[in-house]
Amino acid sequence: MAPSIGTSVPRVDGPAKVCGSARYVDDLVLPGMLHGATVRSDVPRGRLLGVDLDPAFDWTGITVVTADDVPVNAVPLIESDQPVLARDEIRHAYEPVALLACEDRLRLAQALRHVTLRVEPLPPVLTIDDALAAREAIRGADNVIKRYRITKGRGGAAVEGCEVVVRGVYETGWQEHVYIEPNGMIGWWDGDTARVEGSLQCPYYVQKGIKGVFGLPDDGVDVTQAVTGGGFGGKEEYPTLVALHALLLAKKSGRPVKLVYGRQEDVEASTKRHPSRVEIASGCDRDGTLRAVSIRVLFDGGAYVTLTPVVLSRGALHACGAYRWEDVTVEAVAVATNTPPNGAFRGFGAPQTIWAIERHLDRVARTLGTDPVALKRKNLLRLGDTTATGQTLKESVGVEECVEKAMAASGYVEKRERGPVVTGRTARGVGAAIFLHGAGFTGSGEKYLKGKVAVDLLPGGRARVRTGSTDIGQGTETVFRQIAADGLGIGVENVDFAVPSTANVPDSGPTVASRTVMVVGSIVDAAAKELRARLEAEEKARGATRSAAWERLAADPARATSLVQYEPPPGVVWDDATYSGDAYPAYGWACDVAEVEVDLDTFETKVTGFWAAVDVGRVINPTLCAGQVEGGTLQAIGWALTEKLVTKDGKILNPRMTNYIVPTSLDAPPFTTTLVEAAYSRGPGGAKGVGELPMDGGAPAVAAAIEHATGLVLDRVPMLPEDLFEASVKGGAR
Amino acid sequence: MSVAGLALHPFSTPKTLDEALALLAERSARAEKTVLLAGGTDWFVERHVAPAEEAGVLPLVVDVSRLDALRGIAVEGETLHIGAAATYLEIRKDARVAARCPLLAATARDVGALQIQARGTLGGNLASGSPAADGVAALAALDATLLLRSIRGARRVPLAGFYTGYRRSVLAADELIEAIEIALPPEGSPFAWRKVGTRQAQAISKVAFAGLAVVASGRLARLGLGMASVAPTVALLPATRALGLSKPLGEVTDADVEQAVLADVSPIDDVRSTAAYRRHVAVRLAQRFFGELRAL
Amino acid sequence: MSMETNITLTVNGSVVTLEAPPAARLLDVLRERLGLTGTKEGCGEGECGACTVLLDGVPVNACLVAFGQCDGREVTTVEGLGSTAHLTPLQEAMVTEGGAQCGICTPGMLLSAEALLREEPRPTEPQIREAIAGNICRCTGYQRIVNAVNEAARRREARS
Ligand SMILES: Cc1cc2nc3c(=O)[nH]c(=O)nc-3n(C[C@H](O)[C@H](O)[C@H](O)COP(=O)(O)OP(=O)(O)OC[C@H]3O[C@@H](n4cnc5c(N)ncnc54)[C@H](O)[C@@H]3O)c2cc1C
Ligand code: FES
Ligand code: FES
To answer: Average per-residue pLDDT in chain A?
Structure first.
């Protein structure tokens, strides 16, 4: 059997998706189903005095749920500070306060207009600076959600003694996921069993939320993933809230309830990428050898803790970039504000700090009068080097090869040497970014997670993978089949993938952190290989053929299944107290080159070419892998150039697709993607993760290209034409 | 959310223009509201963001998208006649428009994306009266005349006299836009269409500039200009037009153009852009056009 | 002038007569009355293109068309292309080239591409990009969708 790993097996869920028969949550209808809606606050901060139902409105057939109906009113996550429905405190402008359900959608929409919230407004904390100033305390006395400190060598103080000291401040704004399918869940009760089906990334997160709020045992909750129309982190923690809301309405009405958000509600209420400010001071030799760096990372966490501590951690751990530093301090702080909670978004804190360090090294290069890539190359982490947390890189560092490949494919060096090309009122330039992304959970995360996977032998020579890792478009279903097929030595067409439902798949840990292929894939591999060994033993013991052995094992419930739990590789040591050690088992590496054309009158930037070379370890499925790289990169380009959430007094002014601007096919550059394979010994077949990595490099590469083309230096994303214009007024452009 | 309420709207599909006009007349006489539905690309969006309607007071929706009298594109003598319900797609594909009025073809191609072009119409663009209306900016540069009709008869209103303020026009309650008439410039007349939007497609204009000129021995014999998103209504840039017509092209400097454009526009800050940027772009696009004309 | 009217149209090749509110969105009638849930709603405002269907062969956003405007016309949805057992070359290429990831944009994307290929059997890359500019895909970066349409054009030509 020719191995399937390394080939572009067409995605298994493809045919249903191209025929319109794949069922997403909004396509599902249950008998007797009601439609649900959420009543939200309108002010960013205040005291909730009451929820009034207009007595003149006819409420028959309408179910109303408030905080009084919630058994345990806290969404269980890292901290349980977020209520399922606000009871007395309003902490952001889209806080859910009450829920309505009705069979008729028009009546439901009308009813929404007849609910009034009595709220006494309080002065809100809306920005990082507001929060740090702590004139209003909304969390503790200092509004701080979490702090980390990383030090290496003599620490950041060593910067001052260096030959060349450079300082800079780099900022990023919110980013909204804009998965094309908004959040949605159907919830219903089967006696005492809570059931939900919907759009989600992590069935066991949702299960945990339901267990906590309704006080149910593991087997009292069944969470099933419907085909999910994109997630990108946005359906990591948020769907728990939607599921809880649907179940509350279902409980009170005694009917199944479908709660599907409209686009505007989704943009307003769901999580977004954390806004950030990163202050860097670095020291290097006159020849460009980097020595010391002192970095302060500030993230806006929004109204509740959600996943902010973990996002901040990843941000801090990526703050030094792909470079060698002898002396380091990273001080990272996340603060609370009265804005909707920020949460998981592809890259998970790293895009913000990679943006900062890449822009900063561009600044250092400018100061030294050298090309940024030449400077960065000189200082790249190599095998045997130690990172800021003191991790020694022992294997799988493909960054040098990535840089070489990206340079060659894009013609970067020649284009830089030639200088910007100005034709009429258009200037063309190129820029690059070099970066890394830790694969898998940070530090000791995987040890606590204990992810599990089951592989079953089925009659007829078939096998089945059962995992809580979901396919949200990135191709889990296909890639896991490939891994299992090779492990068992059978064709990929003989492997099934069980619909992720907590009732019949084990908890593999969440579908996040680029861990699905590397971590969960490795246990799929282990389970498949274990079954293969059983088959071989059976063959030997009974002198049977493989297929006879297969059928015998498949018929024996005690032997048909292999359930394997993830064991973090030995020798991976992490200390949470000092924030030092092996932050990640392995890193993905990459080099991006962007070419842009800037209209010197209108300051519109068009990305005309994009070359990415990425080291993802062994590539399981080249087509799916390159698709991840390109899709992630385009999200980064959108973040860089057009995606700006405009807010005023804590409210979002552009919560629609007509004014929150994501790229179309005409905004996207042609992509040239090169896959570099520096195998990782503990990944399945040598694979690392790819999901998040491509989100990190697009923005700094585009910024460097704009700088090359126009001489304009921008240190804040997004870089709208208006921002380039402003910079030109200040600085004087070409 | 409130799209659920669409099911409550009464709906009518008149077979002829007269039938539609009679309906409009009857209802406006009784002070009942009527919505003319052409491509629906503005109206459905408006319904989508509006709060849920209470039953009983909904306007009658009258589908005019398939009225023959509103649909054709024709050239009669030196006049281009475009039915108010002709779609952008029909306009951009029309050979006569491409040859004789390439400005309008270019504009049609820049509206939304294909799906919007397949439904959207100039009649809807005009009637909605958005200051960001691309089609209206092009029609401004073309100095179009609007043919308005009611049961009382027809009247012709130059575009310059159509709007009375932000989203307000002289269109009466019983009246509809039947067609747009454009006095065709000589073939090959220089024109400019430049849309600066939020992205390359599916974009609302931050600034859009339309220009049309007829040049005779170094002077402008005709100059039409239109600009979207720089004033409460699509701007006709009277000072800039006057400047262009006032002296030989060679004598019109960039500084003159800047001064005139700044006198003509009054942009604002909004979620899409800033007033300062819009002013800058407005000036530059006009300067570019004059530069191109000088270079002829 | 009634709120429910009998409207006759052709959907995916079959003539259907349906009593439904004429001002309702074509999108809702397709999904809720006809059970054709392949047509998706991503925004309800004409921006995302997930609801794209062909009306008399031309791509339109079903969230912006009144059902009453479809009387006597022909509507094609994704269900009117091939079936999982018999994919059209375009559907097949979309799968093999990696043009569909989460798949929510895919039905609309396919219809825009289908309309293009009917009109322009060998489109250029700029033509492809223009034809799908009204269909937002947040997953793929578009490159693989463009490749799929190219590949479909090749396969269609090879078949005919
Ligand atoms: C995604 C998207 C992108 C868009 N992009 C652009 C763009 O790039 N540029 C741009 O300018 N616009 C754009 N628009 C707005 C819209 O498409 C245009 O304004 C279009 O021209 C409206 O025409 P319609 O036929 O669809 O109008 P409809 O929605 O049918 O009608 C709009 C209004 O006009 C009235 N009306 C229609 N026809 C007549 C008539 N003959 N006489 C009197 N009143 C009439 C209606 O009663 C209604 O009040 C976009 C819209 C969307 C949803
Ligand atoms: S749902 Fe119709 S375009 Fe988005
Ligand atoms: S495949 Fe997910 S939006 Fe296109």
So the answer is: 96
For chain A, how far is it from start to end, CA to CA, in angstroms?
61
Decide whether any atom of ligand 3 lies within 6 Å of the C95 Cβ. Answer: no
A461: Cα within 13 Å, side-chain hemisphere: 10
A276-442+579-729 under CATH 3.40.50.300, yes or no: no
8-state DSSP, A109: H
Kindly determine whether residue A657 and residue C141, on different chains, have CB atoms separated by under 8 Å: no
Q: Work out the minimum CA distance from A441 to partner chain B, whole angstroms.
A: 36
Contacts of B271 in chain A (CB under 8 A): 646, 653-654, 659
Q: Given a cut of 60, is residue B261 above it in pLDDT?
A: yes
Residue B171 sits in the same domain as residue B249: no
pLDDT average, residue stretch B136-159: 98
Is residue B91 domain-shared with residue B110, that is, in the same domain? yes
Chains in contact with chain A (at least 3 beta-carbon pairs closer than 8 A) = B, C
Please tell me the distance between residue A180's alpha carbon and the centre of ligand 3 in angstroms.
Answer: 7
pLDDT at B3 over 90: no
Place of tokens 């299960």: A207
Does position A443 have pLDDT exceeding 90, yes or no?
no
- For B270-282, the pLDDT digits (tens) are 999 999 999 999 9
pLDDT band of A731, cuts 50, 70, 90: confident
The answer to whether the CB of B260 falls within 8 A of the CB of B247 is no
Give me the CATH code for the C5-80 domain, please: 3.10.20.30
Whether C68 and B40 lie within 8 Å, measured CB to CB:
no
- pLDDT at position B87, please? 98
pLDDT(A449) > 90: no
Fold annotation for A445-565: Aldehyde Oxidoreductase; domain 4 (3.30.365)
CATH code assigned at B218: 3.30.390.50
> What is the residue whose two structure tokens read 């980013």?
A175
**With an 8 Å Cβ cutoff, are A112 and B1 in contact?**
yes
State the complex-level ipTM.
Answer: 0.98
SS3 C58: strand
> How far is the C-alpha of B35 from the C-alpha of A21, rounded, in Å?
37
Among B63, B91, B109, residue at a domain's last position: B63
How many Å apart are CA C101 and CA C98, to the nearest integer? 7
- Does A445-565 match A276-442+579-729 at the fold level? yes
The Cα of A680 is separated from the nearest Cα of chain C by a number of Å equal to 25
Query: A475 contacts in C (CB within 8 Å)?
Result: 101
Correct CATH for A33-122+183-260 of 3.40.50.720, 3.40.630.30, 3.40.50.12280, 3.90.1170.50: 3.90.1170.50
Domain that holds residue B213: 191-294
Q: List the domain boundaries for chain A.
A: 33-122+183-260, 276-442+579-729, 445-565
Alpha carbon distances (Å) from B253 to A145, A233, A528, C76: 59, 54, 77, 55
User: Ligand 2, closest atom to CA C63?
Assistant: 2
Q: How far apart are CA A696 and CA A273, in angstroms?
A: 13
Confidence grade of residue B55 (pLDDT, cut at 50, 70, 90): low
A202: helix, strand or coil: coil
Q: Calculate mean pLDDT across residues A161-166.
A: 98
Specify the pTM.
Answer: 0.97
Q: Please give the helix or strand (H or E) that residue C9 lies within, else none.
A: strand C5-11
Which amino acid, A519? V
What residues have CB less than 8 Å from A252, skipping those under 6 apart?
Answer: A63, A64, A65, A69, A101
Structural domains of chain B, count: 3
Residue A25: pLDDT above 60?
yes
Break chain C into its structural domains and give their ranges: 5-80, 89-159
Q: Do C40 and A17 touch (CB under 8 A)?
A: no
Could you tell me which residue, A272 or A572, shows the higher pLDDT? A272
Q: How many CA atoms lie within 13 A of A658 on its CB side?
A: 17
pLDDT in the model for residue A568: 86
- CATH class of the C89-159 domain in this structure: mainly alpha
